[in-house]
Each structure stands twice: as C-alpha cells, then as structure tokens.
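Retro notes
What went well: the complex prediction finally ran end to end.
Inputs used:
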Amino acid sequence: MKGNIQKRIVKDKQMYLLLFPVILFFIIWHYIPMWGARIAFQDVMYIGANKWAGLRHFKMLFSSPVFLKVFMNTIIISSMKMFLIFPLPIILAFMLNEVTSHGFRKSVQSVIYLPHFLSWVVIAGLFISLLASPDGAVNKVRIFFHIKPIAYMTSTSHIRWVFVFSEIWRSIGWDSILYIAAINSIAPALYEAATIDGATPFQQAMNITFPAIVPTIVTVFILNLGFFMNAGFDQVFNMMNDAVINHVDIIDTYVYRVGLKQGNYSLGTAAGLFKGIIGLFLILSTDKLSRKISGEGVW
Amino acid sequence: MKRFLITLLMMTILVSLVFVGCKKKEEAPALSTEVPTIRIVGKDFSPTDDINLQFLEKVAAGFEVYSGQKVNLELVQVPDGGYQEKLNLMLMGGDIPDMIYFQGGDEAVSKQGLLVDLKSYVDNSKVMQNVLQDFNKQRIANYPYLLWIAPPRARIALVREDWFAEAGGKVPVTVDDYYNFFKTIKNNHPDAFVMTDTGNTTRMDFTFDHAFGETATWVKQGGSYVYKKVSDAEKAKLAFYQKLYAEGLFDKDYVTTKWDTMEDKLYNNKVAMAFGTSGVVCDIYDTKLQTNQNVGLVALPPAKGVGQGYSVSTAKETRGWAISATSMNPDLVFQLLEFMATDEGQLLDRYGVEGVHYTVDNGKYTATDKKSEWWPRINEVMTYDGPMPLLGVLGLKSWDFLGEYVVGDPDFPIPADMAPTWDALTNLYKEYNFKIIAGEYSIDKFDEFVKEWYDLGGDKITEYAQGQLK
C-alpha cells in the first residue's frame, strides 16, 4: 500500500508539486488555526495564560434572548440561498453550452463573472440606490406602470429576497465556471453519436450533459453544505438596517456586535465552533446519504 | 526531467512568494539606552504617513523643552481593517504599546488590569485640572482608564441659510416652533425633505430629546429610574417623529442613509437640514455647501420644552488614550499626554506641521491649503486660544451651543454579562422605533413594545440601574 502511494506520487510528481502550495495554504490558514478554537473554552487573558472557562461561553451564547431568533434567521437565509440559488449556475452553464457563437459566449461569460469581483460594500450601495422608495430605479418603473412602490430595503417581507437576488446577481456567473469546465470535458464524440441517432439538443442535454456533470453537482452541493451556517456576513452586514434587523440578524453579525467589537473573542470562537460542528455534521451526513442513494460522495 | 525541473522552479518561486511577507522585520538600529521610547498606537495615526513622523519629531522636541527629558516616540502600525477589532487582536497577540488609543473595546482590556488607573495622575496634574471639563472629570472618576480631551460630541442642527431666510429667518425655540418652521420650508420646497438622519434618529435626538423630557439616559418616572427609550417621553417624541415622517418633513429613506449620503442630500438640495458634530465638522459642511452653491448654514439650538439641552454621558469616555500597565514608563507617558494639553502641545496638535500645514512669517501664522487635511492626533483642548482661528463662524457657534446647553448625563456602563440582553433590547427598540415613525405601527404599539422590552430582560437591567443611580 505504502509503495503504491509512493509510486503514484512519483508518477504524478508534477501534479503533486502543483498541489503543494494549496496544501500549504490549508495547513497554514485552516488547520493550524484550529488549535486556536480552544479559546472557546477559555477566558482570553491579554497578559499571562488563558483561564479555563468550560462551557460558559457556549451557555452565554445559547442563553441570549435573541439567540434562537438569530439562529433561525441564519437557517432561513442560508436555506433560501442554498436551495434557490444552487440550481441556477447549473442551468446557466447548460444555457451557455448551447450558445454556438464562440465570441458571444465568451463575452456573456466575461460580463456575468464581473459582479463576483465587486465587494459587498459596493453591491449594497448599488442595491440600496436601485431599490430606494420612491426614488430608486425599480420603484420608478413600478410608479410608471401605476404600481405602488415598495420600500424593499426596509420591508421585513422583502429584505431576505433582496439578499437572495443580490447573491444571484453576484455569484451565478462565477459559480457556473465549475459546471462549464465539467461540460467542456465531455467527449464530443458522445454528442456526435447522439446527433447521428437523431437526439434533439434537449435530449442530448438530459442524457449526455446532465449525467456527465452529476458527480460535480453532488460534490459542490455537499461541500456547500459545509458552509450552510455562513449566511453571508458581508452581505447582511452591509445591507441590514434598523427596520429589518430582527429579521436578518444572523449568527455572524450577532457575534461581530456582541463578541468581536467588545473584544469578547471566546464568545466569537464558541459561535464559530458551533457553526463548524453543524457544517461538519451536514457534510458527513449528506456524503453518507449521497453514497447510499447514488454511489457518489465527496471523496 | 526538464518539465519536472521547470515545475520545481515554479513551485519554489511560489512558495517563496508565500513566505516573503513572513520575513522577519529588519532590526531597527539600537537606540541609546538613556533615551526611553514611548510606543504609540492610534486610529488613522500610521507610521507609514510621513506627516505623522514629522509631527512626532516636533512633539518629541517640544516635550524635551517642556520636561527636560529626551524621548523617542514610535508609532505602531495597526493591521488594516476595523481599528477596534484589529487593535484588540494586536494586544491579544502580545504587542502592547505604551500609549494606546481606544475607540471601544477597552473594557475587556481594562478588566484584566492591562490599563493604568489614571485618576491619581489626573487629580495631581494642574494642566489636566485646567483643561478637563466637568463631564471629563466625572468620567475619569467613574472609569479611570481612558483620557479624552476633546469637546463633547453633540450633533448640532444645521439648516441652509437661504431656506432659513425664506422661512422667516427666525430661530425656532419650542417644538411647535420647529414644527411650523419645518412646514414652511416644506411648503417652499415641496420636492425636498426638511431633514434626514443616518440609519436611526440618534442625530436629531440631540435637538429634541430634552424638549420631550429625555434629559438623561435614565429618567425619573413614577419615583424610579426608567430607561429613556421606554419612557413616556420617548412615546411623545416618537409620535412627533411619526407626524414629521407622514407629512414628508422627515426623509423617507433615513434608515438606509449613511453619513456620506446624508451630506450629499444636503449639498444636492434634497434636504434642508443635517445634523453635524459640533466644531470642525460644522465648518466642513458649511464650506462644502458654500463651495457647491455659495450658500452657508445656520446652526439651530436644541428645542425647548420640558428641558433644553444636549445630554453628555458621564459614565465613561467612549474613546480616548490609555496607558498600558506593561509600560516601563507610565509616568513619562502621562507627562506626554499632559504636554499635549498645554498651549505648546496644542500649537503642535491643532495646527499640524510648520511649513506644511501653516507658515510663520514675522510671528504671523498663515494656514496653507493643506491645513484642512490636518486634525488633532492627541488632544483637542476646547479652551485653547491659538495664534490663528481654528474654527469658522459656524464651528464657533456650535461650540457656543455646547457651552450653553450641555447637560451631564449620569449614565453607567452596561456590565459585560448583560451585554447579550442589552443587544437584544436595543434591536427590539430599533425595530419598533422605525415601524412607529414610518407609520407601520400606530403609536399605541409603543406600550406593547415597552412590555416586550421589560419581558426580554429590561426588568433586570432597570433593577441594576436603580442601584447604580442612587
């Protein structure tokens, strides 16, 4: 077994060398900091050794009068983003795959990738302006058609949809890259054979393209579940306001306010650990479920 | 093999790039052991800005004349990002400068004994006793870890002088006067709002709180202390704001307005009024409006009703300078803070660097174009009278208002174990506040809010307040 691994490494040495910085990145920024998670069980001391606090910070987190509300907001916003947004990059990749003009496809791709590079500060400013009532562009259109304007940014029934829509606008193009790459790796001979057999483009998409990218879809979905509790700090922080705070306050914004801003790092770490454990549980359970159902897992 | 070597070379370059930022800083040349070094960390006070280094050189020279003591002043760079969070992370990482500027987050640090108790220093300092105002002294008595010599940060109502003149040019006094004044402006300029705020009503509260009876954070109601935001006075104030909102006098988008858009609305005729921090900020608004439209601003006093004034909390400084308990030279650091509060120190701190921000010719001081880029790095003594004006007419007027209307507010800090509850109560207030003002809820809902506020943990904090405010 050991010799087998060594043989594989020697055989694919270039690949492993390329992988090396990535591994290094994860060790430095994701594995070593795990040791710091112990401060969730300690009182951080600026001078001298930290003091053991047991589960006090977790109790403080869970006993907050708003924790349940904040937790539910996180679940709701994450679920909306996860289940409504997840299929869209796949559909977009399919659509782009059907575009025959190479130049047009490239230019569309370039345009839809752009929002990914904008910070949430800019995007929030953009959406606040667009959706302002009654002077925003969207409400001006509504008024033009004699439809009552809506204060989207301050409406508790609309603000979460603003999050979903702005997330779609920002991420759909970038997230489709993986699927476009997976589609591009499908052997053209399969499509040629299907065309000769008289398959329509839709039939080709459903019987060749889709089955071919299922492993990618499953992998991305399971990995995304690991970030389920990350409802999007930057987005929520920049778009929230007093009118909707109780409907959009998520664990991350709560921890930022009550934990980090007041130097209570243990509370922040306890919340991070709690989120991490839920993420790990979701990844492992979905991976197991996926293996049972489709035989495909993450690893 | 060749491909392998090329790949290896590329990997080496990549890894080197990863670690290049981790290279240990070059050791600074050894300093003379007789000259102590004071390490200073402050917000927007970066060692990468040459002007800050030039300023510190002048400060060190001035301090030597003042105290007879040579000193090296070294600025410490805070990592990029929110100052408060990055500073605390820096301190937690063991890098603890001698003189630290806090803008929040200091309580967690002081609780662990990391900050020097400044009370005896302040009590024994003639300079400090002269320059500190009563509310500063009360704050030091309540929380002796932060020292902040600056005017109180009241927000002053500022109205365009042309629209003010059109509306009769008479300064409103009572709440009714204000209301009628707002109505007249609205009639003259139906497309504009009279005023706006930034996300909440904190700025305009400075003008109206006292008039409705919110004369302190905790007000007496029915024989005991009640948090002002659940008081009868708040209910009356919210009803007034609701009326302003409904009649188009108050900006419909105030809740999504940030401070920069608030300014834009003032400069672009979308609002008649804004609320600016007393002092130089008022001058900045005035100058910008003058530049854009050749129109100035008029400062308006707080409305008169049950009371008239601007509350200034005496609980503790919310920002300011602290001395690290790990400092080898705490006395020297305090002496430096003291020097910066003297006329000599203020000359440096208020005017900037000679030759850059101002010039002196035959004893005559002249500001350069760069003067507007300078702000006091350490202290801003309100009573300091320098060789050339530091404030414009509007800024001075706003300071006059402070002298006339500032009222001490015997507030107290909320203990850390009550912070999550306080956060929940604040959020509850925010939501009701907006919904009542925007008319989504009738003012009768205020009673429901009060009940919910107490049930959510407000009762415990109110009980705590009774003990604190005896």
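What we learned: The domain at 37-151+317-408 of chain B is CATH 3.40.190.10 (D-Maltodextrin-Binding Protein; domain 2).
What to try next: split runs per interface for comparison.
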